[in-house]
Amino acid sequence: MSIDWEAFWITPRLAAVVSAILLVLGLPLAYWIAFSRWRWRFLIEAAVALPIVLPPTVLGFYVLVALGSRSPLGRWWQSLTGHTLAFTFSGLVIGSILYSLPFAVQPFAASFSSVDRKLMAASVTLGASPFRTFSRVVLPLSVPGLITGTALSFAHTMGEFGVVLMVGGNIPGVTRTVAIDIYDKVQTSNCSAANETALLLLVLAFAILSFVYAVNRKVWIIGPAK
Amino acid sequence: MNRPQIIEDASAKPETSPLPASESGGREREITDRTLQARFRKRFLSAEHEFSLQVDFAAEPGFTILFGPSGAGKTTLLDCVAGLATPDAGRIAVNNRVLFDTKAPLNLPVAKRQAGYVFQNLALFPHLNTEQNVAYGLAHLSRTARQQRALAILEALGIALLSQRRPAEISGGERQRVALARALVTDPSVLLLDEPLAALDARTKSGILDDLRQWNQTHRIPILYVTHSREEVFALGERVLVLDNGQIIAQGTPHEVLSAPQHETVAQLAGFENIFDATVEALHAERGTMTCRLATSATDSLQHAKVDLETPLVRAGVGMQFRVGIRAGDILLAIVPPVGLSARNIIAGRLVSLEQRDVIVRARIDCGVKMEVHLTLAARHALQLHPGRDVWLVIKTHSCHLMAN
After folding, report:
1. Complex ipTM value
2. Residues A208-226 pLDDT 10s
3. What SS3 class is residue A139?
4. Could you tell me which of B280, B332, B347, B381 has the fewest CB atoms within 10 Å of its CB?
5. Which domains does chain B show, CATH number per domain?
């Protein structure tokens, strides 16, 4: 076996951390997108969707600049920890969060907005606070969307390449992910090893997406089929 | 005429009816602590149309029916009381508690208004079972108190056996009861019901209404009940407000409002199948009647007779325009010219069509205007009616209801 297990371990670890953070950060953002009546809301929606259309190198480049020692964020981090964020696992996490943001937030927001407004109205007329309405009505009815968003952001982070290369570089054991590893292997004409790793990634991605679509068969979520 | 006083905005058109008051329920009503008092206006501007809701009413404990065609603003009115919609100006108070007042200014959040609301689509939480749905509004109580209260109301409404079932697993009538229980259990200070029984059969409906009435005996709060069913108005009605195009056009007891409507919208809602334009031809003060000529149009009719009706006398002058409403069930039909009748109006015409609806036969008669007359199956059989036959219509003076034009 010529799979680089170290790289293979970093990838799901990165994906798990990123999708977990996105689950926490994405909920309020998605809630705001779904229910805000602010007239410029579309600007935020567009900004969230940007990573879908931007080349990863563009996003990676800006993240790298933002994390670097010349930016306020980079300086702040450096004064706190003594080293820069660029080319570290933490830097990779930040880049990946931005990169996978729409894959979490969009399904969250879509499922929030598909919750019947009358149910939310019923909840508040019954004396519930907005938070209770969210946690007891909106969230439980959005479970398929939450699972989809989390699984998609996990899978998307698993498969990322450009941002990782820009922000993390290729440091074995720290920032070298499977995708980079495959690229490396192909570059060094080690095609059979690349094939093994690539096949494993393919199977894994398929498994995750199958899970997402299986979960979204609504009949399993709310009550028995009529 | 005791018509509703409209707040600040004077743009509301006062009713210009020259007719004596009866729809507005002349008697002064006692305003108790628990009365809902609402006086507000709300305007909507959308691309297609502009809609303005402007109301002023008091609803005492017991049922107040909100009756009107769809789009009249009934649901918006409920939303404003519940706080789900915010009026542009006005004041809403219930039980001596101000919920909304633009002068204060005060706009109590929905969650603090203690308004029980049963939505048209019920809005039961699909992921919670019956008991959880009902206990939802009792979050401030301990778990055991919550369970006790929920089970007590479920038992009172006869649905305790369904406590562990989800909305998708119970019938339509049971769902209505759950929605009602969920609103009642919170001990609301006003109950808002938006066509809660529209989809139910008559028996289920009356069962639920009985339970609700019983509950209201011990919990004396105002209940605003939206419906567009005439039967429900008469079945429930202590008091009815007729809403049309955002305005209260009539109020009073169902009998006052719907039996002698003065407004065309009310008349249509009240089931006046025949409504005509009419002009006063002559006044007969000595016998308390007047003659009105119905507007006929040549294209509308094969006959060219002038149609005069003797109607009750109202304060009016010759040449004044009215609308006359006649219930199809109030018209008699004869196959020979009738004689020796007390009825003042006997009009010759020709039967145009017969159409059976359930146990009623709707006959259309052309007598210069088109009249609809309702007959029983037996009457059709006995008279051997068929289209083309000459007939005579008999209409009592007091079956002609005059409405402002």
Report:
1. 0.77
2. 878 877 877 654 444 333 3
3. helix
4. B381
5. 36-114+188-269 (3.40.50.300), 274-404 (2.40.50.100)
